[in-house]
Amino acid sequence: MLKWHDGREPYKKTCRWIMAILVLVLAYTILNSIIPRVSANNEQAYIEHTVESGQTLWDIAVMYRSDADPRQVIYEIKKASGCSALIRPGQVLLVPVK
Question: Distance between CA 52 and CA 82 in Å, rounded?
């Protein structure tokens, strides 16, 4: 094996190690961006709300999420609860908490 006059390994062997490390880092980065992350924090929390007489989805959306656009909250309530725009007193709705 070739040695430098001070005992170091040849330049080619060092370059191969550096290239191997760079390829592994690149492969890790690509896989990490492709594979979706699964986390316990992705679970959606809901508040159960029982509809009272005279309440609308708009009222309920503003009641629980006054900081958000009521139209978006209404969409989320309908999606989570599996209901239409027509709600009735006594019906239980799931209101997403963010």
Answer: 18
CA-angle at 46, arms to 42 and 48, nearest 5°: 165
**Which domains are delineated in the chain?**
40-97 (3.10.350)
What is the tens place of the pLDDT at every residue in 11-32? 667 788 889 999 999 988 887 7
Give the C-alpha separation, 4 to 14, whole Å. Answer: 13
Residues in the chain: 98
Q: What angle do CA 6, 9, 15 make, to 5 degrees?
A: 135
CA dihedral (67, 73, 76, 77) positive or negative: positive
